[in-house]
Structure formats: C-alpha cells, structure tokens
Amino acid sequence: MRFRYPLQKIVDLKGSEKSMAEWEYAASLNNLKQEEEQLHHLIRERGETEDRLGTTAAAPVALAELTAIQQYLDLLDGKIRRQLQEVETAEVQVRVRQSRLAEKSVDEKVWLNTREKAFQRFRYESLLKEQNELDEIATVRAAASRR
C-alpha cells in the first residue's frame, strides 16, 4: 500500500510560495547592491570633482569655470541625496522580502511537518495491519498443525 497525502497539493503550493519568496528576496538584494554601487559611484565622482575644484581654484582660471564646477558639485549633491533615498527604499524592500520569506518558510515547515506526521501515522497503521496479518497466518498455521 502506497502513502498518498490528501493535502499534497497544499504542501506543493507552500513550497512554490517559499520559492517565489526566495526569488523576490534575492531580487531585492540584487537591487540594493545596484543602488549602493550607484551611490558609491556618485560619491567617488563627487570626490574627484571636489579635487578638481581645489586644483582649478589654485591656478589662475576664469570665475565661470569655477562656478560651473561648483554647480556640478551641487548637482551631484542632489543626486547623492536622491540616491540615498533609493538605497533606503531598497533596504526597506529587502527587510520586507526577508520577513515574507521567513513567514513562507515557517508556513511551508508547518505543512511539511503535518505531512510527515500523517506519513508516520500511515506507516504505523501499515505495520500494525501487517503484524495482524502475520499473527493471523501464525494462528491459522498453529491451529492446522494441532489437527
């Protein structure tokens, strides 16, 4: 006799939901990494521009060029502020996805444990049935040998 769990489709669904949550979590981690890399790039570019402003200011140069570099620095500062917000949003998304993954993992584990308990019950009943059949065979043989 073969074990057939009547709620197997639910167990499979919970496994699929967990897999989907894992994919979403991985995607959010990847997104966070990209946003952080973009932020580091902007910060590095700002540092280079600030150095260029310092070296340009030390040399005789037109005021318009210094103003242009300063305006570019202000533009980079704005981009950095927006990118910091993007990184923060991505971090929140990672926490949300991580929480959802934990929830789905627990949910799947509950259903797997329920299935395992049903299997253990099935196995116990099968062994009991088999033992009863063996006992009956032994009883019939013993009765037949007495005659």
Question: Which descriptors apply to this entry?
Answer:
147 residues; mainly alpha; 2 helices; Helix Hairpins
Strand element count: 0
Q: What CATH architecture do you see? A: Orthogonal Bundle
Termini, distance in Å? 35 Å
Please tell me what the overall shape is: rod-shaped
H/I helix tally? 2
The structural domain count equals 1
Q: What is the CATH topology descriptor?
A: Helix Hairpins
What structural category characterises the helix and strand content? mainly alpha
Indicate the topology.
Layout lengths: L7 H51 L4 H84 L1
What does this structure look like?
By secondary structure, the protein is mainly α. The protein has a single domain, classed as Orthogonal Bundle (Helix Hairpins), CATH 1.10.287.1700. It is built from 2 helices and no strands. It has helices at 8-58, 63-146. The longest helix is centred in the last third of the chain and has 84 residues, at 63-146.
Describe the structure concisely for a colleague:
This protein is mostly helical. It has helices spanning 8-58, 63-146.
